[in-house]
Request: fold
Amino acid sequence: MMDVFKRGPLPTLVSVVTTVHNGVVNAAPVTWFTPCSYDPPMVFVALKRKSDTFKNIEEHGQFVLQTVPFKFAQKVHNLAKSLPREESEIVHEELWTVKSKLIEVPRLAIAVQWFECRAEPSMIQLVGETHAQVIACVLEHNARVLEGENEELPLLYFGGLKYSRAQKSIQVEPY
Reply:
C-alpha cells in the first residue's frame, strides 16, 4: 500500500524545503504541499517524520518552501540523499543560497517562487506512520520572472524516477 502514490501518473509540483540546524543549510525535495488559507496566507507540507528537514522545523519553526526549474531536476532529485545532519545537501549538489528577507533560513538561488514560513508547534501533526503534517504561516513570498525557456518552467514529479516540466499556462474565458 505504501507505493499507491508512486505508481503515477499523478503529477505533482516539486518544491524544495530549506531549513537550518547549527549553521548547516538542509534541503529536501517535497511533492506533498499546497496552500491552505488565504487570510492569513498559510501552506500545508507533508514531510518524512525521520528527516532532518522535519527535525529542523520542529526545533526552529522556520523554513523556506520554493519551487524550482526543470533544468535542475537531477540536482533536486539528489537533494533527497540521506546525509549526516551536519552535512549540507546544497553543498554536495553545488547549489547556492540567497539570504531570506524575514527569516534566518536562506532560499535556493535557483528558486522560481518562494515562501518564507514559520510553523508553530501546535500546527505540526503526527498523523500516519511515515509523514508529519506541517501547517505554516507565510511571512514573505516572491517569484522571479521566467525568461520563457522551457528549461525554466517549474519541475513536476510523476512518481518513481520520472520528472517533467510544467507547461506554459493558458487563460480561459469566465463562466
